[in-house]
Amino acid sequence: MARQISKPPKPGRTSQDRQTHLPTRDDILNFINENPDRAGKRDIAKAFNLKGDSRIFLKDMLRDLADEGLIEKRAKRLTTKGALPHVAVLDITGREADGGLIAKPAEWDVTGEKAPQILIRPSRDKGAAAGVGDRVLAKIFPSPEKTGPAYTARVMKRLEHRPDAVLGVLRRTSDGEWRIEPVERRQAELVVDSGQLNEAKAGDLVEVEITRAGRYGLAHASVRQIVGSIDSEKALSMIAIHAHEIPHVFPEAVLREAEEAKPASMTHREDWRSLPLVTIDPADAKDHDDAVFAEPDSDPSNPGGHIVTVAIADVAAYVLPGSALDREALKRGNSVYFPDRVVPMLPERISNDLCSLKELVDRPALAVRMIFTAEGRKRSHSFHRVMMRSAARLAYSQAQTAIDGAPDDKTGPILDSILKPLWDAYAALKRGRDQREPLELDLPEKKILLTPEGKVDKVVIPPRLDAHKLIEEFMIQANVAAAETLERKRQALIFRTHDAPSMAKQESLREFLRTLDISLAKGAQLRPGQFNQILKRVQGSDHEELVNQVVLRSQSQAEYSPDNIGHFGLNLSRYAHFTSPIRRYADLIVHRALIGSLGLGPGGITPDEEARLEEIAALISATERRAMAAERETVDRLIAHHLATQIDSEFQGRISGVIKSGLFVALATYGADGFIPISTLGNEYYLYDEANHALTGERSGKGYRLGDIVDVKLIEALPIAGALRFEMVSEPRPMPASMRSHHKSSRAMRGQRGRPSGIPRGKRKGRS
What we know:
With 768 residues, the protein is α+β, with helices and mostly antiparallel strands. It has 6 domains: 1-83, Orthogonal Bundle (Arc Repressor Mutant, subunit A); 87-161, CATH 2.40.50.140; 165-230, CATH 2.40.50.700; 252-492 and 574-630, no CATH class; 500-555; 644-750, CATH 2.40.50.140. 27% of the residues lie in helices and 26% in strands. The protein has a 5-stranded mixed β-barrel with strand order 3-4-5-7-6. It has a 5-stranded mixed barrel with strand order 8-9-10-12-11. Helix 4 (236-243) packs antiparallel against helix 16, helix 10 (466-488) packs across helix 14 (585-598) and helix 12 packs antiparallel against helix 13 (544-553).
């Protein structure tokens, strides 16, 4: 007999009135879909009046639904697969037939699925009024209607109106007319009158403003700014800045506020200027927001212990809540780093001057003093608002070289007193890290080096030094201390969260590993250590990079949230970003929370900010994803521009992505991806095997798989689009027997011959 309930109990009814029948799968799915803001396990149990053994039934059913990929956990709530979050950033794109505003998510990364439409509910709040072209922060509600948009939304805040500026390349037609070829391919060309060129020349990448648009014909525009020649790599990052609407020009009010700022005083500060803190950064760093010091603990109860001090630039002393600087910093969310430029979160007067922990210069800081055992376990910590003076500015390689036995004139005098105690403390913290077992993926990032003219010089993999790992581990421990302190004070804050892989992704990974004769525990809640065991098993083998890539793709995306679910990748139960307030707004919020809750003087978090933490977390999570996409696309454009003169050349690469329509191949030398359409692979049908990340010939059983090293020929390079198209040179390889049997029993999707071989953008790996 089917289990039935009529409806979840209505508020106000007594327990005697409530239904006691167990809910069906559809009942639970409907409840989760209709209650995105209260769909935790407790909420569901309460709604259906489930107690005692009934809760075990609910737990089993939720696990089954997750295993089937029908629901997934997002923070502390359950959602149906692919559902939008409770709060999201939306772009309003148009109107429906009845005149209502239609929006779509500003960020959408669900592979193979079209972004859902969202109907904007009318608002009486003038501050939340929005129109076509606006970007808004909104609360999302699944639509009860079976037809029309899948969601409705209520605007919480209008973030910005999309500027009417257009970025494009200036061209001259055969009849002498000036035209703008927009970077955004979907946008129509524009006409520029000769008197509106403002010294721009043919081939220039320019920003223009539409001056006249009629019902018929092309709109007219005026050149507002010459970005540079389209033949220059330095213009390519501006395409990403414009395409992702990254604010890159500071308003006058913000610059004026920054210039008027005065150096912080000693009021409400401890004097730590005699403590020899040092900064250790990349050699080309322009701002220095963290300094470190370590010494042995003299406490007899802590033999072999260490005292580690981390001091962070006190940005909250200059960027006050509600100020012009604060509003602009929140709008930007974070700094964005391109090979040729940085778009900073704060003006240089703040980031590179007043808040930069310069060598031998007094600077305000928020510091944490942490005591560790010889095994790297933290015994205690305390926060202090201080005035410090950096004893030395060091580069990573410089500090490492000194430790390795070749100190220079700067590191020699501080080798025994400062550097060696730092490395001794790191050795203890490393023991603690090894005991904690965070996720240890081995995927080194490539760095593009440019010539002075802005052209691609070479792509390198910077060495991973102990100096890097030391600073990283010290910063992690400082971030943990910040989260622990604020939780202990019951102070609301923004956590850096990273959820465990969803059940659906776990099952997909499990199927893939099975083809390599590697087992992954089923049903249990996986921990990072279990992934590490898999990674160690393939270390040094032909499958090492392939397995690292697939494990990475199985992970959830890290984000900011006022709800703490811990950080899966770091294997930490509480974690908050505290160590980079110059370049991340999340850290500034944590600084303010610490200042306010510990009574460390002015600049603490305000009640208004506390009430808006969910909104702020959604905003800065979106700006982080925006920055990652812009940085990645700029690298793609740089490489495409660099290779545009090498058509028909052959390269070695590794298959970095497999989708229904073809293969992505990352070049070994440059790291950039290019695409091979499935229609060009050969004379047989290729079957798409999603679980095994492979394309396999239907007749031959040979094919290509994620991670394979292949030779390819460059057929096309489109610098503005950042796209490369390749032709496969390497012959397909026999697939493992376990995969061939999988083909016979599964519904693999068939590729089609004779389709246009365009260059899709595809999905790329993300960072946690």
